[in-house]
Each structure stands twice: as structure tokens, then as C-alpha cells.
Design brief:
- By secondary structure, the protein is mostly helical.
- The protein has a single domain (44-159), classed as 2-Layer Sandwich (Glycoprotein, Type 4 Pilin), CATH 3.30.700.
- The chain has 3 helices and 5 strands.
- The protein has helices at residues 11-62, 79-87, 91-97, and strands spanning 105-106, 115-116, 125-127, 136-139, 158-159.
- A 3-stranded antiparallel beta sheet has the order 3-4-5.
- Strand 1 (105-106) and strand 2 (115-116) form a beta hairpin.
- Helix 1 runs antiparallel to helix 3.
- It is elongated.
- The mean pLDDT is 92.
- The protein binds calcium ion (CA) (2 copies).
């Protein structure tokens, strides 16, 4: 007797097809996560480069680097608020600041002084330790954490150094 195969798919075939689609979707998702992460790293690096160029211009103008212990108006507290405020005082440096992606200039604390944030929304850190060193700008990187002391943790901070 001839066995007649019914048209259509068996349950197993359907399950296999669903599994394949799920695998492909997962693969695409992780690729897009990776692309997104790389784009954010690039944006953060280019923002650091812009800030560094502005610091150079500031130095040309004032013959010194912005220092965190200079005199600041009240409310201008965080290192990056201080840096952004100082750079804005030197005309050519201020012009360069105009190249920073607008979405990265925030004022989350509602005072008169904007903060510059990295592509993950966290404020940059700024440090300047003395006349013999160039100032350093640091992003906490994708993990949003400046601390990189945990030996099990991958270092992902992005810095101008
Ligand atoms: Ca602010
Ligand atoms: Ca980090």
C-alpha cells in the first residue's frame, strides 16, 4: 500500500524552523548590539578629541590649562562643568566646543552650568594634576564605572591619555 504524505509540515519541522529563526534573530541582535557599542565608543572618543582641541586653544589664549581649583561661580561643581565653563571663556576654545554633539551636552542638575556626558549618558571626568602634565579627560566607558580595580573586570574606560 502506498503511503501518502500529507501536504504541510509536521510539528517537528515547524519546531526546527522556529528554532532556526530564533537563532538568526539572536545573531542579528548581538551584531546590532556590537555595532551600537562601537558607534558609542567612537562618539565618545571624538568628543574627547574635541574637548582636547578646545583645551589646546584655551592654553594658547590663557597660557595655562583650566585648573579645578581656579575660582568658579557657585553651582559650577563637577570637574566637567568646570572644564566646560572655563573653555567657554576663551573665544577659539568656545568655537571648538560647538562641534560637540548637542545630545551630549546636558544640564541634569538644573544649575546654570551644563555637563558634557559620554555616549552612555555619564559625565566625563576631567583632571589636571600639575604644570608638567597635560590635562586628562576620561569616560567611564560602556560599563558606566570609573573604577577599574576589580581584576575580573575588563577595562573599558576611554581616556585622552
Ligand atoms: Ca549642571
Ligand atoms: Ca569603565
Amino acid at each position: 500500500m502506498l503511503k501518502i504524505k500529507k501536504n504541510g509540515l509536521t510539528l517537528v519541522e515547524i519546531l526546527v524552523a522556529i528554532a532556526i529563526v530564533a537563532l538568526l534573530a539572536a545573531g542579528l541582535y548581538s551584531v546590532s548590539q556590537y555595532v551600537d557599542r562601537q558607534a558609542k565608543i567612537k562618539l565618545t572618543e571624538s568628543t574627547i578629541a574635541i574637548l582636547t582641541a578646545a583645551i589646546d586653544e584655551y592654553h594658547d589664549f590663557y597660557k595655562k590649562f583650566p585648573a579645578l581649583d581656579d575660582v568658579y561661580p557657585s553651582g559650577c561643581d563637577s570637574p566637567i562643568e568646570k572644564l566646560y565653563y572655563r573653555l567657554g571663556l576663551a573665544p577659539d576654545a568656545k568655537k571648538i566646543l560647538g562641534h560637540i554633539n548637542r545630545s551630549l551636552i546636558k544640564n541634569a542638575d538644573g544649575d546654570d552650568f551644563p555637563e558634557v556626558v559620554d555616549a552612555w549618558g555619564k559625565e566625563f571626568d576631567y583632571s589636571y594634576t600639575g604644570v608638567e602634565n597635560f590635562p586628562v579627560i576620561t569616560s567611564a566607558g560602556p560599563d558606566g564605572d570609573f573604577g577599574e580595580t576589580d581584576p575580573g573586570k575588563k577595562e573599558d574606560n576611554i581616556t585622552s591619555r
